[in-house]
Amino acid sequence: MLQLMQQLTQAAVQSAVQHATQSGVANGYIDIVQPLPGQPSQIYLRINNVFRVFNNPNAQTHDQVQEAFAFGHQVIGVWDSGQPLVLRSIYIRKI
Questions:
Q1: What span, in angstroms and rounded, lies between the C-alpha atoms of 11 and 16?
Q2: What are the structural domains, with CATH classification, of the chain?
Q3: Which helix H or strand E contains 63, and what residues bound it?
């Protein structure tokens, strides 16, 4: 039983390491405010020359990202290494 618990713990740790969150500062964006019928609203952030998508942002998030780029604030995207093209969250740093 102890060996099984150790194996399960090791598998959980390996999974967590394999799917660690990563982040980067965006230097461009595409905001899909009016998507085609049946498609989700999306914001794409360009981070390290790779576009990463944030699905179904609310209206406030659209406004905040646009304002951040307009005023030169940092827009930071966070993603899971298991799905590197899909953003989990967006942070805005006003410096």
A1: 9
A2: 20-93 (2.40.50)
A3: helix 59-70
| Joined tokens for residue 72 | 């030169």
pTM higher than the cut 0.70: yes
Please write down the HEC assignment for all residues of the chain.
Answer: CHHHHHHHHHHHHHHHHHCCEEEEECCEEEEECCCCCCCCCEEEEEECCEEEEEECCCHHHHHHHHHHHHCCCEEEEEEECCEEEEEEEEEEECC
Secondary structure class of 54 (helix, strand, coil) = strand
Q: Tell me if residue 68 falls in helix, strand or coil.
A: helix
CA 17 → CA 20, 41, 59, 61, distances in Å?
Answer: 5, 31, 34, 29
| CA pair distance 39, 36, nearest whole angstrom | 5
State the Cα–Cα distance between residues 60 and 52, nearest whole angstrom.
19
Residues 32-68 have pLDDT tens digits of: 988 999 999 999 999 999 999 999 999 999 999 999 9
